[in-house]
Amino acid sequence: MRITNQSMLNNYLNNLNRNLVKMSKYQDQMSSGKEIRRPSDDPYAVTRSMSLHTSINQNGQYLRNIEDSLGWVDMTDSALGSMGDIMNRLRELVVRGANGSLSDADRNAILDEVIQLIGQISQIGNTNYDGRYIFGGQDTTKPPFEVLNNNELVYNGAAGPEHEVLTREISQNVTIDINVPGTWIMYGKASDPLAVDLATTLNNIVVSLENGDTQALGGELLGQLDKHIDNLLALRSEMGAKYNRLEAAKLKNEEETFNMTKLLSKTEDVDLAEKIMQYSMMESVYYASLSMGAKILQPTLLDFLK
Questions:
Q1: How many CB atoms lie within 10 A of CB 33?
Q2: Cα–Cα distance between 277 and 287 in angstroms, integer?
Q3: CA 95 – CA 107 distance, rounded (Å)
Q4: What is the pTM of this model?
Q5: Which end of the chain is more exposed for a tag (fewer CB within 10 A), N or C?
Q6: Which tens digits make up the pLDDT trace of 190-205?
Q7: Closest Cα to residue 135, out of 146, 126, 148, 147?
Q8: Is the C-alpha dihedral spanning 94, 110, 195, 135 positive or negative?
Q9: CATH, domain range 53-263
């Protein structure tokens, strides 16, 4: 087979051009710090990179949901604790009010404090987190509690199973309920309802103090109050469990994101030391090719340069 000088020149130039393309690619990778510059570089790596970016972004949203939920649950627990303190103070006042030897002035002083405490329960019931009322169920835009002129505590928030609970997605296909709707404070949970709602108990305490009904105060009303205190403790316990679950979810989320980011770095990022070595080797090949080509194709090159 006859090989002409022109064929040798063409092969030489093609090989030289391939070396230049590789050197250019290595330069781009070193300057950008990324292994992949375009989909054609490595279709499989590009697909994996896109999938990892999507998963990392999703995890970022889950983390924001978790952190928001932690703040919400912590605020709820604090509010329930404050409400529990008020209820315990109410219990002390009811026990004192049940004393038949109290003067009207003493009983009226107790009544005044009870009315003030009912107002404080309403205020705590209207606690908001980041501009959202935490006890209003799914209706977080308006205060859920108020006290009427007759000192009656009223709940105006969302009610009903389909409107009470706020959920957050904290991982793929994993959700958690983060709130305590005001209905649970007033009436207990549907699975464990209170025999007498909180508003009725508080109203009856006020009426009994006004009428000097020590028997009601020291009997059924004290028992009802204890049930409401126990209910608040149970709700706080649930919040504590939710907080722990959210903390565990946050730790898992951060570990997953770290591992995915590490894998993404292996997929996308350049090993600079290795790339410098590859570039140096290709550069040596390139210059050696120039030198060898000048010797082998010297007549053709000289003719070409004339």
A1: 11
A2: 15
A3: 11
A4: 0.77
A5: N
A6: 888 999 999 999 999 9
A7: 126
A8: negative
A9: 1.20.1330.10
